[in-house]
Specification:
alpha+beta; 4-stranded antiparallel beta sheet
Length: 232
């Protein structure tokens, strides 16, 4: 993982909203949140068939495989959010640790991903987040160029993120596979998926075109909310 840290200390304890907690009833299971818009809502930037397959097949597979790791480890999972689990990977039972990192990461990363996209997205952030981006990256365009560079240079499958790090600074990082920034002590507020299943039907091998397009559907209201929660 390569990281870029820019800026100065920004305040307070990291808090991340919208956690998915494993059901504390007799049948423990993580549940995939509903998609907050129709499959075709992000057209023409993300096509409906990609959205349908990505959500119903790939995200569902991460959810199912994560739940398959629970039997025999109910005591560990009971009452915990996936975010809390991924935040302390060393506490995960050794025999299922990598599986939880992979499948739990895929589950959590996609839970965030759908929320930070919107048919009414695009443009630039406003308010506190806009001020923080200007503070840390000089301009929004510089921030965007830096994140795009991480996305285009990431080898293989993975994500690039805007996070609030352990030093309360904004930071751009990239992670391989479905690794979560939470496992590095960082709170993700914006994540862009560059696994091929996120774009290949429409863009084939043209990842830079997908990256340029996705900025048109970024839900800055959601990203801003997550940022403000993180610095409370």
């Amino acid at each position: 993982m390569k990281k870029i840290i820019i800026g100065f200390a920004c305040l307070a304890t990291l808090i991340f909203g919208g956690y998915q907690r494993v059901d504390a009833s007799s049948e423990l299971a993580f549940t995939k949140p509903p998609l907050p818009y129709a499959y075709d809502a992000l057209e023409p930037y993300i096509d409906a068939k990609t959205m349908e397959i990505h959500y119903t097949k790939h995200h569902q597979a991460y959810t199912d495989k994560l739940n398959a790791l629970i039997p025999g480890h109910e005591r560990f999972f009971k009452g915990k959010t996936i975010e809390a689990i991924l935040s302390e990977p060393d506490q995960i039972p050794a025999e299922i640790r990598q599986g939880v990192i992979d499948q739990g990461g895929g589950f959590a990363n996609h839970n965030l991903f759908w929320r930070i996209l919107s048919p009414n997205g695009g443009g630039q952030p406003t308010g506190v987040l806009a001020e923080a981006i200007t503070c840390h990256f000089d301009t929004f365009d510089t921030f965007k160029e830096t994140l795009n560079k991480e996305l285009t240079s990431l080898f293989g499958s993975g994500w690039a993120w805007l996070v609030v790090n352990e030093d309360q600074q904004l930071e751009i990082i990239k992670t391989a596979n479905q690794d979560s920034p939470l496992s590095l002590g960082k709170t993700p507020i914006l994540g862009i998926d560059v696994w091929e299943h996120a774009y290949y039907l429409k863009y084939q091998n043209r990842r830079p075109e997908y990256i340029d397009a996705i900025w048109n559907v970024i839900n800055w209201d959601e990203v801003s909310k997550r940022y403000e929660e993180a610095i409370k």
